[in-house]
């Protein structure tokens, strides 16, 4: 302890004069110097090497315990955060009943993108397709067989009927 | 470096080497625990604030234990154990004499003078550490120094 110098670098005389009159400030400063000289002349005992060594050991143990506590705390926090995230994800993905949900209107018939076989899945289409197939078969029979006047007439009728059906189908 | 100064601070306040050992040990354990609360600035100020708190906690504990004793006896027991001090220092007369005279000051003034000497803090910092106006600290110091000087030179 270097008492004779002022380790605090404060202007003591100026400070004392702010709170005391001139003579009291001077007396206080002299008393302070005298007491500091006495204290410097009578140094307090110093801690023994044994106690310093024991304190160092205690500090190391305390630091290790502190670090361990921090590590446990961090792990607990990470586990808690993971649990909260899991719960949030589970709740978000469930879409509870009654809660508003987003519905997208389709501009295409469901059959177009839901069916693998349009002609088979749409009842109207099934009906007209079968009609067309039947007429086509009759036409092929007629073309392959007799082409007399009666047959030609029947063929023309069938073609007209086929055209009418196709037109009617697309009007629906 | 700090250990010696802190030990001196505790010893001057208690006059008991074993107790100073205990308080010093407690101080350094507290430092490890509270190191996160150190926000920079004067380390001595932070260190001696903790040291001062430890000493006051010790005093409070001591006072609790002595609650059943009468006020005069309690006051006498707060005085440093001079015999123990003398024995532990192998008859260093001057040291004992200073410790005796420091022990005759009231606890607050004793702490103020001891804090100034061992912490090497400015009076502004000491007043801040003690949570009292600087004028009050200087006034106590003035009375305490005068008394101690008279006791030592008388």
Description:
The complex is a heterodimer of chains A (172) and B (154). By secondary structure, chain A is mainly α. Chain A has helices spanning 12-19, 22-41, 49-94, 110-114, 118-121, 123-144, 149-171. In chain A, α1 (12-19) packs across α2 (22-41) and α6 (123-144) packs antiparallel against α7. The radius of gyration of chain A is 53 Å and the shape is rod-shaped. Chain A starts with 11 loop residues before the first helix and ends with a helix. Chain B has 154 residues and is mainly α. Chain A binds chain B through residues 1, 3, 7-10, 12, 15-16, 19-20, 24, 27-28, 31-32, 34-36, 38-39, 41-48, 51-52, 54-55, 58-59, 62-63, 66, and chain B through 3-5, 7-8, 11-12, 17, 20-21, 24-25, 28-29, 31-33, 88-89, 92, 94-95, 97-99, 113, 116-118, 120-125, 134-135, 138-139, 141-142, 145-146, 148-149, 152.
Order of helices and strands of chain A: HHHHHHH
Ranges of chain A where pLDDT stays below 50 over 5 or more residues in a row are: 1-5
Counting DSSP E segments of at least 2 residues, the number of strands of chain A comes to 0
One letter per element, helices H and strands E, the order of chain B comes to HHHHHHHHH
Lay out the secondary structure.
The complex is a heterodimer of chains A (172) and B (154).
Chain A (H helix, E strand, L loop, with lengths): L11 H8 L2 H20 L7 H46 L15 H5 L3 H4 L1 H22 L4 H23 L1
Chain B lengths: L1 H13 L2 H18 L8 H23 L5 H8 L3 H7 L4 H12 L2 H13 L3 H7 L4 H20 L1
Helix pairs in contact in B: 1-2, 1-3, 1-7, 2-3, 7-9, 8-9
């Amino acid at each position: 302890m270097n008492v004779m110098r002022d380790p605090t670098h404060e202007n003591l005389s100026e400070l004392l004069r702010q709170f005391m009159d001139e003579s009291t400030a001077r007396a206080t400063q002299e008393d302070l110097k005298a007491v500091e000289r006495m204290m410097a002349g009578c140094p307090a005992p110093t801690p023994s090497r044994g106690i310093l060594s024991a304190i160092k050991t205690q500090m190391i143990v305390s630091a290790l315990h502190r670090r361990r506590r921090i590590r446990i705390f961090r792990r607990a926090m990470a586990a808690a955060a993971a649990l909260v995230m899991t719960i949030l994800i589970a709740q978000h993905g469930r879409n509870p009943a009654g809660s508003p949900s987003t519905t997208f209107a389709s501009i295409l018939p469901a059959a177009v993108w839901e069916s693998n076989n349009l002609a088979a899945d749409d009842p109207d289409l099934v009906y007209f397709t079968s009609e067309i197939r039947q007429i086509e078969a009759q036409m092929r029979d007629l073309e392959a067989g007799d082409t007399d006047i009666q047959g030609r007439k029947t063929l023309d009728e069938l073609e007209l009927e086929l055209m009418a059906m196709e037109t009617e189908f697309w009007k629906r | 470096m700090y250990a010696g100064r802190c030990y001196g601070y505790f010893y001057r306040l208690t006059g008991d080497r074993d107790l100073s050992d205990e308080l010093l040990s407690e101080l350094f354990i507290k430092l490890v625990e509270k190191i996160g609360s150190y926000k920079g600035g004067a380390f001595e100020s932070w260190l001696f604030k903790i040291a001062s708190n430890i000493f006051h906690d010790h005093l409070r504990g001591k006072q609790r234990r002595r609650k059943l004793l009468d006020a005069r006896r309690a006051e006498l027991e707060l005085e440093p154990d001079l015999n123990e001090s003398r024995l532990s220092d192998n008859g260093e007369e001057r040291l004992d004499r200073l410790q005796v005279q420091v022990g005759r000051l009231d606890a607050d003034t004793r702490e103020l003078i001891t804090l100034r000497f061992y912490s090497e803090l400015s009076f502004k910092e000491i007043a801040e550490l003690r949570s009292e106006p600087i004028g009050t600290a200087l006034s106590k110091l003035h009375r305490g120094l005068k008394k101690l000087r008279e006791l030592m030179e008388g």
